[in-house]
């Protein structure tokens, strides 16, 4: 992959307008600099279509039960990678912005969709430069080898991705806005509420085409 790819530009515009209005205190101006920086760390020459997207199991950090392994496993954050390894499972894809157990992602035999944005631009290079197979994702129009997925948190971006890749069934393990496992502050709680709204949006878009299960 050499140029930038945008999954559904109109949906991205709607979603971005939504979360920037709700969280104006975050550094969204830095997203443009992050989009310039991120492609320099891209070392993925493949195509996302090489993965089997028919059934997708998305694992989020609050997960408490072992997920099914009869489809593509997507881990949200390095913390979920560790949980999967403890269960003897390995993800095919990890979606992360390197702020929750990032060291677990470094030696993962998987494709890492490393998200670059205004709030992680200072430490993004530290981890992105060490990932074996990295496809950067960004929050504004891509400048080079990177992917723009509608969404705001790693979790809802994973669901959007599976939906746009044509998944017939998406199983979401561990999404629980009332259980905060990384930190518990006003911004984090607001992010989880935004994620909840966006996941519900995908649920509505998917009706009749994709079965989405919250487990």
TrEMBL record:
Q: Which UniProt keywords apply?
A: ATP-binding, Kinase, Magnesium, Nucleotide-binding, Transferase
Which InterPro entries does the entry mention?
Answer: HMPDK_MptE
Q: Which reaction does it catalyse?
A: 6-hydroxymethyl-7,8-dihydropterin + ATP = (7,8-dihydropterin-6-yl)methyl diphosphate + AMP + H(+)
Q: Which cofactor does it need?
A: Mg(2+)
Q: What is its EC number?
A: 2.7.6.3
What terms describe the molecular function in GO for this protein?
2-amino-4-hydroxy-6-hydroxymethyldihydropteridine diphosphokinase activity; ATP binding; kinase activity; magnesium ion binding
The keyword Signal is assigned to this record? no
According to the UniProt record, what class of enzyme is this? transferase
Summarizing the function annotation, the protein's role is: Catalyzes the transfer of diphosphate from ATP to 6-hydroxymethyl-7,8-dihydropterin (6-HMD), leading to 6-hydroxymethyl-7,8-dihydropterin diphosphate (6-HMDP).
Q: Which family does it belong to?
A: Belongs to the archaeal 6-HMPDK family.
Question: Which HAMAP family does the UniProt record give?
Answer: HMPDK_arch (MF_02131)
- In Swiss-Prot or TrEMBL terms, this protein is called 6-hydroxymethyl-7,8-dihydropterin pyrophosphokinase
Could you tell me which species this protein originates from? Vulcanisaeta moutnovskia (strain 768-28)
Gene giving rise to this polypeptide: mptE
């Amino acid at each position: 992959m050499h140029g930038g790819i945008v999954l559904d530009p109109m949906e991205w515009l709607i979603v971005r307008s939504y979360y920037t209005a709700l969280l104006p205190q975050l550094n969204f101006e830095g997203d443009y600099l992050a989009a310039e920086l991120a492609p320099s760390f891209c070392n993925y020459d493949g195509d996302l279509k090489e993965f089997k997207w028919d059934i997708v199991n998305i694992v989020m950090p609050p997960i408490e039960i072992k997920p099914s392994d009869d489809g593509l496993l997507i881990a949200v954050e390095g913390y979920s990678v560790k949980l999967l390894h403890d269960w003897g499972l390995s993800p095919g894809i990890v979606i992360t912005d390197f702020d929750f157990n990032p060291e677990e992602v470094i030696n993962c035999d998987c494709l890492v969709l490393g998200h670059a944005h205004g709030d992680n631009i200072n430490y993004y290079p530290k981890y992105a430069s060490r990932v074996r197979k990295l496809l950067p994702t960004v929050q504004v129009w891509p400048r080079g080898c990177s992917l723009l997925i509608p969404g705001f948190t790693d979790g809802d971006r994973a669901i959007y991705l599976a939906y746009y890749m044509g998944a017939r069934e998406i199983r979401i393990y561990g999404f629980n806005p009332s259980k905060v496992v990384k930190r518990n502050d006003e911004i984090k709680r607001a992010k989880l509420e935004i994620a909840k709204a966006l996941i519900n949006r995908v649920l509505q878009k998917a009706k009749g085409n994709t079965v989405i299960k919250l487990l």
